[in-house]
Amino acid sequence: MYSIGQVAEMFGLPISTLRYYDKQGLFPNMERVSGIRKFSETEIEALRVIECLKKAGMSLKDIREYIHLAMEGDSTIEERLQLFYRQRKILQAQMEELQHTMDVLDFKCWYYETARDAGTVQVPQSMSVEELPPQFRNLKRDLAKVPIVD
User: Fold this and answer.
1) Are 66 and 28 in contact (CB under 8 A)?
2) 41-55 and 4-11 helices, crossing angle to 10°
């Protein structure tokens, strides 16, 4: 059994966050000794899952729903699966957006490295799409559709 302070230190979380999670019903079977929360391996494992789901962008409301569904047993397998499919789709869209952002940053790094080496932004600016490195050609076409400041 672990104290709330020990768990907070293990996970790098404020004690207030753990109390909030408990109040939100994320540790439904947590034992209390003289009113003091005691974290067992079950709560530690649950907290690992909670932190992972939060990193995946899942709301605490959906995490709470998942925990309650899991407690209901096998009759909720399909509901839990659908919950994860939905979150997976959301996370995939976020990853695609982040990848596009990284592609733009990579392009801008190449653009300014080329400008630095040439001593002017005119060199990369005047390049045709075909003269660009292959990985930037489609991106350049997409960026040409929206005004971007050098």
Assistant:
1) no
2) 40
Number of residues written out for the chain: 150
Contact 15, 4 (CB under 8 A): yes
- The 10 Å CB-count burial string (b at 16+, else e) for 16-40 is eebeebbeeebbeebeeeeeebebe
Q: Are 117 and 92 in contact (CB under 8 A)?
A: no
What sign does the CA torsion over 32, 33, 36, 40 have? negative
The C-alpha atoms of residue 31 and residue 38 are separated, in whole angstroms, by: 6
Say how far residue 75 (Cα) sits from the centre of its chain.
Answer: 29
pLDDT tens digit at each of 150 positions of the chain: 999 999 999 999 999 999 999 999 999 989 998 989 999 999 999 999 999 999 999 999 999 999 999 999 999 999 999 999 999 999 999 999 999 999 999 999 999 999 999 999 999 989 988 999 999 988 888 877 766 555
128: helix, coil or strand?
Answer: coil
Query: CA 5, CA 10: separation in Å to the nearest integer?
Result: 9
